[in-house]
Amino acid sequence: MSYKVGIMGATGAVGREIIEVLHDRNFPVEKLRLFASVRSAGKVMETPFGEITIENADEADYSEMDIAFFAISGGWSQENAEKATSAGCYVIDNSSAFRYDDNVPLVVPEINANAIGDSKLIANPNCTTAIAAIPLYTLHKEYGVKKVIISTYQATSGAGAAGMSELTEETRNYLEGKEVGNKVFAYPIAFNAIPHIDSFQENDYTREEMKVVWETRKIFSEPDMSISCTCVRIPTMRVHAESIVIETEKPVNPADAKKLLSSVEGVELKDDIANNVYPMPITATKKYDVEVGRIRQNLVFGDHGLEFFVCGDQILKGAALNAVQIAEKL
Ligand code: 11C
Predict the structure, then answer these.
(1) From ligand 1's centre to the CA of 212, what distance in Å?
(2) Does 52 lie in the same domain as 71?
(3) Cα–Cα–Cα angle for 192, 195, 199, nearest 5°?
(4) Is 85 annotated as a binding residue?
(5) Under a CB-based contact definition with an 8 Å cutoff, are residues 135 and 261 in contact?
(6) Active-site positions?
(7) Which of 21, 137, 167, 229 suits a disulfide with 150, CB 3.0-4.6 Å?
(8) Residue with CA nearest ligand 1 atom 5
(9) pLDDT tens digits, 125-145
(10) Distance of CA 125 from the midpoint of ligand 1 (Å)
(11) Is 99 annotated as a binding residue?
């Protein structure tokens, strides 16, 4: 059986990557249709499925599609999801529009594919959540995670193609002695680190930080899990790195944790400090697996605590890959 697939937002960083991942994973595509804003409609895009003419996303007829990947914006998803699902089309939404809706499953397939049930609308998590989720859930199942503290080092790709271009342009400007400027981020990102991603909330955390809390709890079905996060944008291109500290119910030691994580689907253990092997954005770029390493006994929680570092491609496991994996489960 093969499927009629639509990508809404096909010209964006995530949309483009979804096309590549569908092809790379041999997803059974009967017909692929690409949609974007009216500005891009009519243009022809080269894809591994051949040349495809882009159509206006606002005028899509969802009765002609089996699965639509939504990668435009939260507002657009909100306006169009119902239209698609009521026409019988599955929607895998990359935005945050429905993630916190109790009636919409929020899915990392390696963890909670069964949450999909018979829902036609499935939410794809925020990249920062998705990248931490598999190692964290693996440790949670084995040792019972009581507390989690995460600090992130997030790539410019989190702000889409415009974010990545801004890093390139600002770096060039800086090195050429020109005014650096900034448009996408609150401050210049080149040679900087900005502890501000998305809007500030009433509790002084940012929405990006709270997404990690809300989404991890929902995906793990642990509504009371104690989690805190600080999110920082750094001048890298497309991999989010995260330092994670956990306190566990049961005693845990790094050797056992490494053994456990080395056998988990979606994780690549990179932990050999004698040979300077650890996760890094340059090695995790364009990789499906999330790199996990620097696993050590945490100094605060002792034998009930671990500290480790993860790096995952923000556009792949953080977006396009996870979305395609959800489609595979459907
Ligand atoms: C960032 N994590 O790095 C964001 C991008 O909720 O899907 C993804 C936002 C989201 O800026």
Answers:
(1) 10
(2) yes
(3) 125
(4) no
(5) yes
(6) 127, 240
(7) 229
(8) 158
(9) 999 999 999 999 999 999 999
(10) 9
(11) yes
